[in-house]
Amino acid sequence: MELCRSSALLTGSLGLVCTLIALSTDYWFEARGPGFSLHSGLWPKAFRNNIADYIHATQSLLILAAVWGLVSVTFLIMSCIPSLSVRGSWPLASSIMAFAAAIFATVAMVVYTSERWNQPQHPQVQTFFSWSFYLGWVSAVLLFCTGGLSLGAHCRGPQPGYDTL
Fold first, then answer.
1. Domain boundaries, the chain
2. Number of helices (H) and strands (E), helices first, in the chain?
3. Long-range contacts: 116-120, Cβ < 8 Å, 24+?
4. How far apart are CA 72 and CA 120, in angstroms?
5. N or C end: fewer C-beta atoms under 10 angstroms in the chain?
6. The listed CATH number (1.10.3470.10, 1.20.140.150, 3.40.50.150, 3.40.50.300) that belongs to domain 2-42+55-160
7. How far apart are CA 146 and CA 10, in angstroms?
8. Which pLDDT score, from 0 to 100, does residue 162 have?
9. CB 139 within 8 A of CB 105
10. Is 159 helix (H, G, I), strand (E, B) or coil?
11. How many angstroms separate the CA atoms of 142 and 130, rounded?
12. Given a cut of 60, is residue 107 above it in pLDDT?
């Protein structure tokens, strides 16, 4: 149980950090052409009033993923403190929150990927996804791993019965 809980805490913390870095950086998409190089993220500076709906959806879903990831990590930390630990309840709650965060992150990444993928290309401009985008996908995978490891910690933990009363 300790190995699962410790691993879940590590992957959850890494997933939360990756989500926050992906949210706050401007290297989701890059464009290179003859004599110029541009990059953009989820918080475009140029056209504040004319931001595409898929950007708003991705922002909202990743913020929700970060909040649920933070709650999941908090529950895992609480499960490590003996005075706060209620047998078996914190890892299960953490697992539910981590899976919710992973689903939000995955949906956000799918929305962004599908919308960017379908945009028209200019023949002289090379466009590609950049490192912030890939960090968003890594965070989704790490949050799924956190959910699985938290569930493993819950299943391997002591079950209530007469001997624990």
1. 2-42+55-160
2. 4, 3
3. 116/29
4. 39
5. C
6. 1.20.140.150
7. 8
8. 45
9. yes
10. coil
11. 19
12. yes
- For residue 107, the one-letter residue type is V
Provide the edge-to-edge strand list for the sheet that holds 36-40: 36-40, 29-33, 126-129
Partners of 38 in the β-ladder = 31
Question: What was the pLDDT predicted at 128?
Answer: 82
pLDDT beyond 70 at 165? no
Distances (CA, A) of 110 to 58, 61, 65, 136, 151: 9, 11, 14, 10, 25
Structure tokens at 83: 């005075």
Rounded to two decimals, what is the model's pTM?
A: 0.84
Q: Is the pLDDT of residue 16 over 50?
A: yes
- Above 60 in pLDDT, residue 161? no
How far apart, in Å, do the first and last CA atoms of the chain sit?
20
Q: What type of residue sits at position 42?
A: L
What does the block give as tokens for 34?
A: 């003859």
Query: Do 157 and 87 meet the contact criterion of CB atoms below 8 Å apart?
Result: yes
